[in-house]
């Protein structure tokens, strides 16, 4: 029995749902990166990075390339980089909306609170 598309999408996003995996994908946007450079940028244990890279590799969105004793990782396609850019745009809009709401709330705190009769309650 085939998995419904919405379920496959949910599994895909669940696979992306780890901060280390997202950071790895961000670092790979500009081309292949050796594992040693990923380790220095992400600052986690090598075994933890290896586990997260394995998840990304099994999903097919990253590939590993060996050059001598150096193993590098790269995005399997450009669509993942576009997805990360789209996520940044969405988050930017959400945060901008939240900051506007925060500014309104802060402004409301500066205005005197009036009682039903019109008198300032703070006096």
TrEMBL record:
CDD domains: HTH_ARSR. The keyword DNA-binding applies. Keywords: DNA-binding, Transcription, Transcription regulation. Residues 1-95 form the HTH arsR-type domain. The keyword Transport does not apply. InterPro entries: ArsR-like_HTH (IPR011991), HTH_ArsR_DNA-bd_dom (IPR001845), Metal_resp_trans_reg (IPR051011), WH-like_DNA-bd_sf (IPR036388), WH_DNA-bd_sf (IPR036390). One of its GO terms (molecular function) is DNA-binding transcription factor activity. It comes from the Bacteria. NCBIfam families: HTH_metalloreg (NF033788). This is Winged helix-turn-helix transcriptional regulator.
